[in-house]
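Recap slide: Bifunctional ligase/repressor BirA, sequence and predicted structure.
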Amino acid sequence: KGTKNAILRLLYENRSHYLSGEKISQLLDCSRTAVWKHIRELTAEGYIIEALQKSGYRLISAPDGVNEAAILTGLETKQLGHTIIFSERMDSTQKKALELADDGAEEGTLVVTNEQVAGRGRLGHHWQSTRGTNISMSLILRPRLPIEKTPQLTLLTAVAVADAIEEVSGLYCRIKWPNDILYENAKLVGILTELQAESSFVKAVIIGIGINGNTSPESFSGELAGKASSLRAITGDHYDLSHLIQVFLKRFETLYDRYLDKGFLAIKPLWVRRAASLGKKIKVRQPGGHVLSGKAIGINDDGVLLLEKEQGEITRVYSADIEWN
Ligand code: BTX
């Protein structure tokens, strides 16, 4: 698998010209037969690779979805995403990332798959993924943060994803507290932040992100009909999901560095600018089933939602699902 990945990586890096079998075998220190065998395997997997007798190989196109080589080629981050754990199919990237974090995976490790069969949302919800058309990924971080600050990373992630979506598609998305990314009330992205801690400090934060990129509108049926959408369903365009991941990682890294340096106050205005829920009358459904209603007046400097109840009393909301009409 290692050599095949390395060949794919070379093909991605040299997309503008042909790379001879001999050159590949020299660079990777393997036989030309091995190169030929791996190229044949890649072709069977759906990669279209042009082979010219005198010139060599050139990658024309890749199957739908993401792959490790595509994410790494041209990635502009300093650290995030430099280690990628990819496989075509996984139960849940979140589950895998939690295991890897337990085993000491370093900050910035990205777990990603094309087919997530048991995706998890918050509070035991299910997250739907369709093969090759949406992004399912989990990022492992090791910030030196007290536990109570970690929800801020969810808000930061929402800003980074919304900014990345805007950069690749031009769509201006809004954020519904704490973690939904909406375009005209349809959910395009889900974010799930989980952590491993020791006493009151964080050992690892795992940020799971699901993005409906090229998902067809028909796949949002039943409960999701009218509530979920995808970039493709909105614009009609087809997106390079590996590129979207690169743009996200770059943006996230910039904001994360700024956050570690200056704290949440440096991120708050970026979040508020995109906030969909502020100023609205909302219903807050808390874990455990308790429901509050009132007006969402803002978030405080820690990222906690401030709810003004009928009588004018202000309550802080740390974790909940919110809705409005
Ligand atoms: P959440 O609890 O805020 O949202 C889950 C709810 O969203 C579901 O109950 C359902 O109503 C709706 N939903 C389910 N699938 C979709 C979808 N594809 N698009 C729009 N709405 C949907 C959000 O939880 C957090 C989701 C994180 C998913 C990522 S994917 C990579 C990583 N691995 C993993 O198992 N989870 C995370």
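The radius of gyration is 22 Å.
The mean pLDDT is 94.
(End of recap.)
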